[in-house]
């Protein structure tokens, strides 16, 4: 046995030992958080078990939680994980069992929070591992420990185990499958199974890798066994990583990293997680689909559509949006594949993407065999590149009886903005068999922006609960999942089935109508949900979208009256379901300071830079290079301090723009850096060091814009530019200017008839 690493943990908040088990739960259920080469892990089965009993120590007591208690031997002190002694007489033993039960509950709480009472989803063709089979497997291993592996038994039991029957502590035994990321460039690793043994009272968790023998039986692989241990000494906590037989450790760099990684990287993360008082408000990622299938499908789609990054004509970040839509498409494809298996059908599901934005998700799903189309209020340039097999329609949708999709299996709302809360309603009224998938981003009610009602929740969590409430009211079983996408808003809601039979459609539809109108009238009490405290205020005007997907806008000027009786009777309702909803204008109002006059922007930039540089007057320069040693980087000022120095007319003009002064300064990226509400002069010497760490797409865009604009510092800064001309990305004078490649690229994008097609 060898210690790979040991870390002292400061616990001012008193979170240990419970925090340690929460950290272990992350490594057990979501190892990809620490090891980026893993796709995830699936918990196959779990059970409670007794500590293995060596033959040399006497007869082995019966295992299991229902074991009858015999006479307690005399007291025998034993060190616990908190560093004290735990007696084994009757009162002390009862206290020890209570402590063990409390610590066990603390250990299991984070594991069971996501899906109480159920192991992780298998879904890869193997099926869930039966708990009875885990019983047989563990009993077999226990006998092998007792009979032929005394060293491993000692490693498993730890220093706190005695030789008396009362030390037969209850263990938590988990069988898990660790799943590596699949890649066409790396075919080495395959999913591996492990037995994970948690000894809560002793503060240890041991990982026993499994392998199959020639007859297909599972046995413990003796080479890669390790243990994570929590200990307490002299009022200080320690977390250690121990390796059994380090000389037999085999590292493949993926499933089994080097011992130094366990003792440094993993240990540091466990120590930090143990004292973080954070509990996730959301479920684990990919809890509704097979992680194995998702990983394989995602890598295939990523390889298939990676060329989209190179031809992306939109102003949005190509890497973010291409790979995000690839991930969403992979998720839907696996979700729909498993749904077909459950329903025992072969026909691929049809879909409509409402507020489809750039249309890439529609393009991928269509190319993968699912008939469908996308609708958005504004056409995108990239639509012309997909080809005729991708159906994209330009048009606005106002929720009413004329905008239903009775022949469609699924409605998709991928960052659908104002349509997000309406999608469960449209799906419910389209047909009894219509389902929905929404990925909420911006917070909208049925009309206007969503108004918060619960200060104890984050705005994001509260909005997700609102959309779930809408789905529940519409008669759906609403499930929540967390996607693996490069976005802060990655929780999706899925409505796959109904809570009522088709014969109750009229009754449930009356309930829907009553709920929708109650958001703008009298509160309605529904089973299982708390009524809204008050009707939200109506927001008017043009609202932007943080992720580039633009759907529909909502402007409201009056509150409608409820008409539940009309829909309950099956009558067609003329006009929108909630008067006051208006689609977003086709031409979007831009209020991000980009349309301000150039001379006004230049004036503000010069004035703010003058403040940061200590009042030095900024004038055009004639010299070409500043001194690197004496270059004045200026001071930093808060946005409030900068605003106090600007005249009233300038501030009034900026306030009419979204973000005001801060947006203008952020847009002047070449000159300023705005961090945590403070403004700095940007030092491009530091930017040069960070440029190598940027993604490939950003480095390519940076190269395309090289020397296409004049250097502000060369022209205005008292000390000139901090970089020499050959290193500065901007032109030191008109002679260095070159044409913008972005402008040339736009000129090369022709109309639909002659545009290149993006094939799958």
3D architecture notes:
- The protein has helices at residues 18-29, 90-112, 131-148, 150-157, 259-274, 291-305, 308-311, 318-343, 360-367, 422-430, 459-473, 505-518, 564-568, 598-612, 639-644, 648-655, 660-667, 684-690, 696-704, 712-716, 741-748, and strands at 2-9, 38-50, 170-180, 192-199, 204-212, 218-220, 225-233, 236-244, 351-354, 372-376, 391-394, 410-414, 435-439, 476-482, 491-498, 637-638, 672-675, 678-681.
- Helix 8 packs across helix 9.
- It contains 21 helices and 18 strands.
- The strands form three sheets. Strands 1, 2, 3, 4, 5, 6, 7 and 8 form an eight-stranded antiparallel β-sheet that branches. It has a seven-stranded mixed β-sheet with strand order 11-10-9-12-13-15-14, sandwiched between helices. The chain has a three-stranded antiparallel β-sheet with strand order 16-18-17.
- A hairpin with a 5-residue loop joins strand 5 and strand 6 (218-220).
- It is α+β, with helices and mostly antiparallel strands.
- Mean pLDDT is 77; it is low at 54-97, 107-127, 161-167, 522-573, 620-628 and 745-760.
- Helix content is 31%, strand content 16%.
């Amino acid at each position: 046995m060898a210690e790979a690493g040991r870390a002292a943990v400061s616990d001012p908040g008193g979170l240990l030992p419970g925090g340690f088990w929460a950290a272990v739960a992350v490594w057990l259920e979501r190892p990809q958080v620490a090891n980026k080469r893993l796709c995830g892990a699936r918990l196959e089965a779990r059970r409670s078990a007794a500590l293995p009993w060596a033959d040399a120590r006497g007869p082995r007591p019966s295992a299991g939680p229902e074991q009858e208690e015999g006479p307690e031997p005399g007291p025998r002190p034993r060190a616990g994980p908190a560093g004290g002694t735990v007696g084994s007489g009757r009162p002390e033993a009862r206290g020890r069992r209570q402590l063990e039960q409390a610590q066990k509950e603390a250990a299991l709480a984070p594991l069971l929070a996501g899906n109480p009472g159920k192991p992780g989803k298998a879904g890869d063709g193997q099926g869930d591992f039966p708990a009875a089979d885990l019983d047989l497997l563990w009993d077999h291993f226990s006998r092998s420990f007792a009979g032929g592996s005394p060293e491993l038994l000692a490693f498993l039991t730890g220093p706190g185990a005695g030789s008396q029957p009362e030390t037969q502590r209850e263990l938590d035994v988990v069988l898990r499958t660790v799943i590596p990321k699949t890649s066409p460039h790396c075919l080495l690793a395959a999913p591996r199974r492990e037995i994970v043994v948690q000894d809560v009272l002793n503060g240890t968790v041991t990982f026993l890798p499994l392998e199959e023998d020639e007859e297909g039986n599972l046995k413990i692989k003796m080479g890669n066994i390790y243990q994570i241990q929590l200990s307490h000494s002299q009022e200080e906590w320690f977390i250690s990583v121990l390796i059994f037989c380090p000389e037999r450790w085999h590292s493949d760099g993926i499933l089994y990293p080097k011992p130094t990684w366990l003792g440094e990287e993993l240990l540091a993360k466990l120590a930090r997680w143990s004292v973080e008082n954070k509990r996730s408000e959301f479920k684990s990622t990919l809890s509704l689909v097979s992680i194995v299938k998702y990983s394989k499908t995602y890598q295939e789609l990523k390889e298939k559509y990676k060329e989209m990054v190179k031809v992306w004509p939109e102003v949005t970040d190509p890497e973010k949006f291409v790979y995000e839509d690839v991930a969403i498409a992979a998720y839907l494809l696996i979700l729909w594949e498993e749904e077909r298996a459950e329903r025992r059908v072969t026909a691929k599901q049809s879909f409509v993407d409402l507020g489809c934005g750039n249309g890439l998700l529609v393009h991928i799903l269509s190319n993968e065999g699912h008939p469908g189309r996308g609708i958005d209020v504004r056409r995108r340039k990239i639509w012309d590149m997909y080809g005729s097999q991708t159906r994209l329609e330009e048009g606005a949708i106002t929720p009413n009886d004329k905008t239903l999709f009775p022949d469609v299996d699924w409605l998709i709302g991928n960052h659908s903005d104002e349509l997000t809360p309406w999608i469960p309603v449209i799906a419910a009224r389209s047909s009894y068999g219509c389902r929905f998938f929404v990925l909420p981003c911006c917070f909208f009610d049925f009309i206007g922006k969503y108004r918060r009602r619960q200060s104890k929740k984050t705005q994001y969590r509260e909005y997700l609960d609102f959309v779930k409430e809408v789905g529940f009211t519409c008669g759906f079983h609403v499930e929540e999942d967390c996607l693996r996408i490069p976005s802060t808003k990655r929780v999706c809601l899925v409505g796959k089935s109904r809570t009522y039979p088709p014969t109750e459609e009229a009754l449930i539809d009356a309930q829907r109508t009553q709920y929708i109108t109650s958001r703008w009238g009298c509160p309605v009490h529904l089973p299982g949900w708390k009524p809204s405290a008050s009707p939200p205020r109506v927001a008017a005007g043009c609202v932007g979208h943080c992720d580039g997907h633009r759907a529909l806008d909502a402007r409201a000027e009056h509150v409608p009256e409820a008409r539940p009786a009309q829909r309950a009777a099956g009558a067609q309702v003329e006009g929108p379901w909630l008067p006051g909803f208006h689609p977003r204008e086709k031409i979007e109002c831009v209020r991000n300071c980009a349309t301000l006059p150039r001379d006004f922007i230049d004036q503000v930039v010069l004035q703010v830079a003058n403040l940061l540089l200590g009042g030095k007057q900024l004038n055009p320069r004639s010299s070409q290079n500043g001194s690197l040693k004496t270059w004045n980087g200026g001071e930093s000022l808060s946005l409030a301090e900068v605003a106090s120095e600007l005249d009233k007319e300038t501030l009034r003009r900026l306030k009419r723009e979204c973000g005001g002064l801060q947006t203008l300064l952020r847009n002047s990226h070449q000159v300023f850096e705005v961090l945590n509400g403070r403004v700095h002069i940007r030092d491009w010497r530091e930017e040069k060091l960070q440029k190598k760490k940027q993604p490939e797409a950003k480095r390519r865009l940076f190269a395309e814009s090289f020397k296409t604009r004049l250097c502000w510092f060369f022209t205005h800064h008292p000390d000139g530019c901090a970089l020499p001309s050959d290193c500065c990305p901007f032109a030191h004078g008109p002679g260095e200017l070159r044409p913008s490649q972005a402008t040339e690229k736009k000129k090369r994008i022709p109309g639909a008839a002659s545009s290149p097609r993006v094939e799958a």
